[in-house]
Amino acid sequence: MIETARTKAWSVLAQASERSHVLYGWQSQRFGPLGRIDGARGVELFESGGRAVLDFCAGQVNVNVGYGHPHVLAALRKQMESFCYVAPNLASESRERLAEMVVEAAPGSELSWVFFSNSGSEAVENAMKIAWAFTGRRKLYAAWTSYHGATPGASAMSGDPRRLFVEPGLPGIRHFHAPTGWRCPFAPDDPEESARLCLSTFEDQALRDGPETIAAVFLEPIAGTSGLYKWPASFVRGLRAFCDKHGILLVFDETMSGWGRSGTWFACEHYDVLPDIMVTAKGITSGYVPLGATLITDRIRGAFVSRPFVAGLTTEGHALACAAGIANLEVYRNEGLIEHSRELGVLLKEHLAHLKERHASVGDVRSEGLFGCIELTADREARSPLAGFRNSERDVAGQIVQRLWAAGLFLIAKWDFIFIAPPLVIARDDLERGLEMIDQVLDFTDAVIHS
Ligand SMILES: Cc1ncc(COP(=O)(O)O)c(C=O)c1O
């Protein structure tokens, strides 16, 4: 099945990759890369030979301002001319300015200190260390439906199957059920009841575990690659209240959901709940240069005034990354990208509902702003998975990605999920064009369930 769906170009690339010395993340190495890119502009990738492919997942849900943005390129050139890097204990204008802008954009008024790292995973690792050091406690809680990164600590925090590569993981990490709507094990058809039951199950678990031993609860305000779930507000507010009552820190991981992706600056704005620590990366620089950020409150920073801070990196606050970050945040504001994400999000929601009506293999559709997901099913009534989390033999997601690539669309599909998260600069026509291609590939998944 896999071989028949593969294009000729794909197998040529796979063979070439055998000689390229490059290892590709998260995939069996025999598959090699999907394509070879010579250029990129706006929402399009250009293959060698000139074919344009529409990027429907903004790289890895990070290239929010699109490729080759002149404002970002100019800022990078300017920074390069003065210096690219200085040691982390030396101050520089770009790091100070970006910290100021990030604090200004961050939710609420308490997150006023920023530690810059190089990725979302590092930002999560640093949040874990800060939580341990600040509270003097070791246990950390995260949702089963979560992904927090690829480094050993962040992987162990992740609930999705990528955690299995580091099992048994770190001692003291616990996972809890969050209200996943259509997929909720408790009350799939009643979001409020699902939130109530998940919260009381979490509370029961944490109380048995000794809340005075728990340092922090980590949550993606909208879960990303583990299935795109927006939680009922009552659940997030309940977690906040429990943390407050027991001196536990609440950490929001806005690596993917931040920077306008869900139609607000940060996804936690949907609930009116503020964290003690916020982690972010991706859209902070749109991938022009890698950058992660861990934001903490004044209260937490206070613990490190007279004793050493627990994190440090050779390239913390890299000048080029900070210059890219400043320019990105300017683009968000100058081009009204947060509003654009919210507005086009209405169109995306309508189209997704239509796809669900048309295709029997679509179990559920979820979206907020330009952050969308189609969940496939073998049987909508029974809510049974199509490929599920482990079914690599069927590799339905792999075939979807390859078929769409051949048709001119790049996106992320894994397990039973097809993700839609284009650059926030996407035009309405391009959004509709990409959704039409997805409509066609769903004929293939419909055929799979009928075969
Ligand atoms: C919510 C979340 N946290 C952390 C990470 C890890 O970020 P990175 O891949 O930059 O290390 C990701 C990556 O997708 C993510 O979605």
Provide an overview of this structure.
This protein folds into 2 domains: 2-65 and 337-450, Aspartate Aminotransferase, domain 1 (Alpha-Beta Complex); 70-334, Type I PLP-dependent aspartate aminotransferase-like (Major domain) (Aspartate Aminotransferase, domain 2, 3-Layer(aba) Sandwich), CATH 3.40.640. The chain contains 14 helices and 18 strands. The chain has helices spanning 2-5, 8-17, 58-61, 70-82, 93-105, 120-135, 152-157, 191-209, 233-246, 298-302, 319-334, 337-358, 396-407, 428-450, and strands at 37-41, 44-47, 52-55, 111-117, 139-143, 173-176, 214-219, 222-223, 229-230, 249-253, 277-280, 292-297, 362-368, 371-379, 384-385, 409-410, 413-414, 417-420. Helix 13 packs across helix 14. The two termini are 12 Å apart. Pyridoxal-5'-phosphate (PLP) binds at residues 119-121, 124, 147-150, 220, 224-225, 253, 255-256, 281. Pyridoxal-5'-phosphate binds next to helix 6.
Label this structure with key terms.
binds pyridoxal-5'-phosphate, 18 strands, 5-stranded antiparallel sheet, 7-stranded mixed sheet, 39% helix, 451 residues, Aspartate Aminotransferase, domain 1, single chain, Aspartate Aminotransferase, domain 2, alpha/beta, 2 domains
